[in-house]
Amino acid sequence: MQNFIYHMPVKVYFEKGGVKKYFPKEMEKYGKNIMIVYGGGSVRRNGVLDEVKNTLEKCGKTVFELGGVASSPSYAKIREGIALYKKENIDLIIALGGGSVVDSTKIIAAGAEIDEDIWEEEVIHHRFPQKMGRYAVVLTISGAGAEMDHLGACTNEETHEKKTLVGPYADFVIEDPSYLMSVPLRVFTPGVYDSLSHCMETYFGRGTNVWDEINESLMKNIIRNGKALMKDPDSMEIRSNLMWDSSLIQSFSFYTGKPGDFQAHGIENMLAAYTHATHGVQLAILQPVYYDHIVEDGADVFARFAVNVMDVDPSGKTELETAKEGIAKLREFIRCLNLPETFGEAGIEVSEETAAAVADTCNVSTTNVRELSRQEIKELILECR
Questions:
Q1: In whole angstroms, what is the distance from residue 376 CA to residue 37 CA?
Q2: Fewer CB in a 10 Å sphere around the end CB: N or C, the chain?
């Protein structure tokens, strides 16, 4: 096991009605000006935005809004948020939404208290602000687990780059499972796969440690509840389990003492800078194909995954046959969630030129069972069409 320092400062209130119950006490810690960051308007239509605003106003707060965060966050919108923060002297930002909104909020907070451009500071100069803004999260869709960590991804459309920037941890998070009930399956299921993806990215990193067996249990829970969701989409119990699953993964305990395999994630990040497609959808397309490429080099760990997570019977099979059946079962789960298996099915156009550009610029993992060449990454992307 590698050396590590583990610290998780995020407080989570997991409760139906949590906003009305916990906001009054929490808001005593902050000044008057509160900015709410949210996405495409679903929180306005389902009444969650009004509930949060009304609760804040009862706490004596002045509320400012930044809506329109896209499913693949743009740096232009983040700069808009930083400008609003500075103009209105914001005391606390509230991320009202899911992973894209939370990621955007982290980067807004990272750039809020400095005069320099946060993209240039972190991406180009590798300098990180000593002082950052403060934010909290009201989670309305789960999957990314972004509420638990201090990393935020966004796309700089001027440079065709999607990068992960460092921001602060949330002061607190409210996870109200009732907020998930109005989320349609087509929006919810990419997050279910995103959660599983985060587990697998840690699991298939080089080496084994104590967290791998805990990880197996969490993956089985996600798969079991994901399948149950498709049969009973109106079950708050199922959705609440999936909500907490995603948060647990990004508590970063799974990453302690072991390197992960984030190759598929690295490819998806750069590809999203061109396609602007939903993160979980593109991961579900890319990841099984990536695993096809490396399964022979890591047959032992893939066979373990097949048996312990995917319930493959290894009797009469070679280790590699068992491993490949596990990947086949992963594809079955993706189909169960009604997620596309190719870019074509998803309506995503990926040209050979785009594939080459992504392959030339994405991060290449060195902690997976086998390092890919950039040519192989290009071929992998094209196979997904």
A1: 39
A2: N
Residue 168 sits in the same domain as residue 305: no
At 300, which CATH number? 1.20.1090.10
For residue 48, tell me if it sits in a domain. yes
> Same structural domain for residues 158 and 69?
yes
Predicted TM-score of the model (pTM): 0.92
**CB atoms near residue 29 (< 10 Å):** 12
My answer on whether 248 and 200 are in the same domain is yes
Q: How many domains does one find in the chain?
A: 2
Whether 70 is in a domain gets the answer: yes
pLDDT of residue 86: 98
3 found inside a domain: no
* Domain match, 159 and 194 both: no
Residue (of 312, 320, 323, 301) closest to 205 by Cα position: 301
The answer to whether residue 4 is domain-embedded is no
